[in-house]
Amino acid sequence: MADVEYDLVVVGGGVLGTFHAYHAMKKGLKVALLEKDAMPKGATVRNFGQVVPSGMNTKWQQYGRKSLKIYKKIHAKFDISVRQEGSIYLASNDDEIQLIEELKEINRANDYTSILFTKTECLRKYPGLNERYVKAGLFFPEEITVEPRTMIGRVHKYLKKKGVSIFYKAKVIECNALNNEVSTQLANGRMLMSAKVIICNGSDFKTLYPELFSTSDLEVSKLQMMKTKSQGDFKISGSILTGLSIRRYEAFAECPSYLKIKSKEPMDSLEKKWGVHILFKQAMDGGVILGDSHEYADADNIDDLGFDLNMDIDDLMLTRAKEIFSLPTYEIEQRWFGMYSQCKNSDIYERTIDRNIHIVTGIGGKGMTGSAGFSKQNIQQIFNI
């Protein structure tokens, strides 16, 4: 027997599912958000908490900039751990300087504020930065950080206050289209009826529609990260992205010199092998989160990535990090890995089943930054409102 009827059931309580629920609620729809675990524990809580539209291509930067406004709007009413301290890309050589200068011109054309910092300005703003490493920087004052392990729970509390029904330990085992409604069957025997269902399943490809995912172009990236013990009174503000990030992020691929500069990179480096680029972000407890790496497997072969942490990868990241920043301590308090799904041939995976069941996943590393803005447009399209 069905409990109650909803306009929308969202499957998956991570950042992508949560913001679909948020925008549906904002449109006046009756929404249920279902999370299979006691709280989300996938990619949404296993990242840096950097909201950096600056790293995205032109299309996704627009979504990211909308996300910034949405995060700030919610935070003004309900603390979701937002800190607006900006982001900086640190250039370590002439090629990287050229790329950040070209990106600044692209940002100017897109009306997105960015400021070139000299070496001296970088060293003044970021104590502990190695003067032998940094040559210049590109700073984005509008960008924010959040605490990834607490933000999503706080947004859920905000949604509850606004009338969204949120169910935890609610594993969905089946969705069925019935005329103009959808039944969503939970493992605990409960069934929900709704006009539409949106499935934001992250990298869980074994439960719902496994055959569909096994033949898709989805792949999963495994990322290793770590956090130091508290740095005491030492402070790093905002998000620090380095030369390896400049050579990896989509935004820089739109720069005129990008392909020429990338072509000069060694193909057999350990950084290339493990997809390493070095980021820093200080958590509210004083520890510094740093990483990360990227290893890949097709959606049908996730288990090939294993559950171990490769200490050679961690050692490489620590070595590179120490070449960039002198922190009071590099003693590691936590190590973990996260997994996110992405498409090989498109920027996000979308599939509609029986008109009223919509799968939205494979957002890749854009989730924390792009989900809030993207979900707003997607809700408008799905409900034609």
Specify the structural class: alpha+beta
Unreliable stretches covering 5 or more consecutive residues? none
Helix content: 25-40%
**Assembly category:** single chain
- CA-to-CA gap between the ends? 30 Å
**Mean of the pLDDT scores?**
95
Rg, alpha carbons = 21 Å
Instruction: Report strand %.
Output: 25-35%
Tertiary shape = globular
The overall strand count is 19
Number of helices in the DSSP assignment: 12
Largest sheet properties: 9 strands, mixed
Task: Write the SSE topology.
Elements: E1 5-11, H1 15-26, E2 31-34, E3 50-51, H2 58-77, E4 87-91, H3 94-109, E5 115-118, H4 119-125, E6 136-140, E7 144-145, H5 148-161, E8 165-167, E9 172-178, E10 181-186, E11 191-199, H6 210-214, E12 218-228, E13 239-241, H7 243-246, H8 250-253, H9 258-263, H10 270-274, E14 279-282, E15 288-291, E16 295-298, H11 311-324, E17 332-343, E18 349-353, E19 357-361, H12 367-383
Parallel strand pairs: 1-2, 1-11, 2-8, 4-13, 11-19
Antiparallel strand pairs: 3-7, 4-6, 5-6, 9-10, 10-11, 12-15, 12-16, 12-17, 13-14, 14-15, 18-19
Helix pairs in contact: 1-5, 1-12, 2-12
Keywords:
nine-stranded mixed sheet, 12 helices, globular
Would you write up a description of this structure?
Helix content is 32%, strand content 26%. By secondary structure, the chain is of the alpha+beta class. Strands 4, 5, 6, 12, 13, 14, 15, 16 and 17 form a nine-stranded mixed beta sheet that branches. A hairpin with a 4-residue loop joins strand 10 and strand 11. The longest helix has 20 residues. The two termini are 30 Å apart. Keywords: Flavoprotein, Oxidoreductase. This is FAD dependent oxidoreductase TIGR03364. Belongs to the DadA oxidoreductase family.
